[in-house]
Specification:
The chain is of the alpha+beta class and 124 residues long. Helices cover 26% and strands 16% of the residues. Strand 2 and strand 3 form a beta hairpin. Helix 1 (2-12) crosses helix 3 (57-65). The two termini are 49 Å apart. It binds zinc ion (ZN).
Length: 124
Amino acid sequence: MARRILEENKELSNRCHVQWNGVHGFEIRDGGFTFVVHLDKKYCDCRLWMLRGVPCPHAVCAYYYLNQDPDAHVEHWYRKETFLKAYSHFIQPITNMRMWPETTNPSIEPPVPRKMPGRPKKKE
Ligand SMILES: [Zn+2]
């Protein structure tokens, strides 16, 4: 999914133009709108970058302006290494629930219903 979004954003970045750039801050013109991009904070005014973790068309435009590959700035949780690390531990087998030790602590009961203030609703 991240790959598909990034490829779409690369296509969409063709219509964007860098108006001004500081060290990490960019002003990107996209049609009739101007977006501010901060590459160091991974921030864009359109907020898609923060929502998805994939550089938005404006960030892609800024990275292309710097001759950098936007693929390297996709969040780590989309990477294969993160996936393999998450599933590298096996779930240990456990005994049947009936064989679990009984607890001496009191059981947790739901709270006692109490009458709320105001007139009760009429049944229809
Ligand atoms: Zn953006």
